[in-house]
Amino acid sequence: MIIALEIGLLYAVMAIGVYLTYRVLDFPDLTVDGSFTTGAATTAVLILGGVPIWLSVLGGLFAGVVAGIVTGVLHVWANINPLLAGILTQIALYSINLRIMGKANLPLLRAETLFTPLRENGLLGTWVSIAIFAGVAALVGVLIYLFLGTQYGVALRATGDNELMARAQGINTGGTKIVGLALSNGLVALCGSLIAQYQGFADISMGIGLIVAGLASVIVGQAIFGMTAVWQAVLAAALGSVIYRGIIQLALNAGLNPNDMKLISAVLVVLALTVPKLSPLKRWRQQRIREKAVAEGGAV
Fold first, then answer.
1. Number of domains in the chain
2. In the list 40, 83, 262, 300, which could disulfide-bond 196, CB 3.0-4.6 Å?
């Protein structure tokens, strides 16, 4: 379970990125499956090429930003449906990622990475590494929370809430969409960079189906912790990633076939979407909201 916590905290960076498009922008972005691998591939190639580790990580992040911009441009300027724009970029990235790596798999076991000091000192798989990974996830979450509280962040949120109204207020909704997609895929690529270094390899198939894991993390987290405020929604996305990875680990420990993990992920998303709507607590809350609205209307 400690390993599941480590992986869950690393993937929390990706979950926050998915939260930006899925919840904030209301944009179903499927670029994630490709940009995750792009971040991993770019970082791996740069590290093996002798580039300093931090510059390699930034290179992977920048590659994800570019992927997000491409999806945004296809949607905003070419007027392509959001789903199709993401699919087109994702498909193109498969070939681009192969070009970047030169082959389907790049091992990093003998290369110096961010995790080498932890691995050499026997700290991976301990509470020390969990504390470090939690700090990284918290830092990303705080930065995104602060950004969404800025004037431009509010404009981005307004674009997702009501694009027509935001445009009527003078907001360049096309620009906010492109920026939001760039930021989201940059975080996803950063997660891919970290995961590649953590696992010790970058693989062409490592991002397949990742959007389901990202959605599961966001939906499960917000179903449990709620999303009343921005900080709560960001925290829920990060904690949802940890819970999701914990559930997957429990399923593996129970003896389920690893080949069924994608199916389990899909079922988990369905349950997270439907169960809260059917729960008595949800109906009670809705009833309370209606009663409060009626009472306030009567008072007026």
1. 1
2. 40
